[in-house]
Amino acid sequence: MADYRKINGYFKRAEDVLLASAGLILAVPAFVIVPILSKIENPRGKVYFKHKRVGNRGEFYALKFRTMDEAEGNDQYWENDSDMYVFTDRTRITKLGRFLRKYSIDELPQFINIIRGEMSFVGPRPVTPKEKERMTGAGYGKRFECPQGLTGLAQTDPRWKVKSDLTLSLDIEYVNRYENGFIGPADAGIVFDTLMSLTEGVGKS
Fold it and tell me: Where are the domains of the chain?
């Protein structure tokens, strides 16, 4: 019997390095233009934002372009984009940040997390340590049995658009595919659907 976890682990690492490397090359203009615009909008503000996340290999800092005004005296302000819970204070989103979120440009720095092996290109979205502490149900542990991703089934499946509380069940569905069959076709479909949604500008705003 094939060990699909091992096979998919090797496949996803190759997939991640290839896609993230290509993504970083294509995103070079964004890494030049966004910091300039960010400093024009707020000369004292930081260009990048990092927040602690939990993946299948433990804790790491997910990188993003800053999209919100920084809370006074608190560099690590709360901004949660894990798709499990949403507590974001949208009144602090900047004009530039609103555009970056609409087209998910703010998440381009996470290509670096992928290259480092902290995340995968496709998989359940990583959550914060506090969120993981609140995950007490039996199903929640399942979502950490494969690499956490930049995008995933829960972000692209039409069922999620109809019923947003399906996030966990869609994450588990993806993990089951990861454990019981070759994940390549599923990942290809999710990447394609993600690219289509980006061209439509349906990211968080």
Answer: 4-199
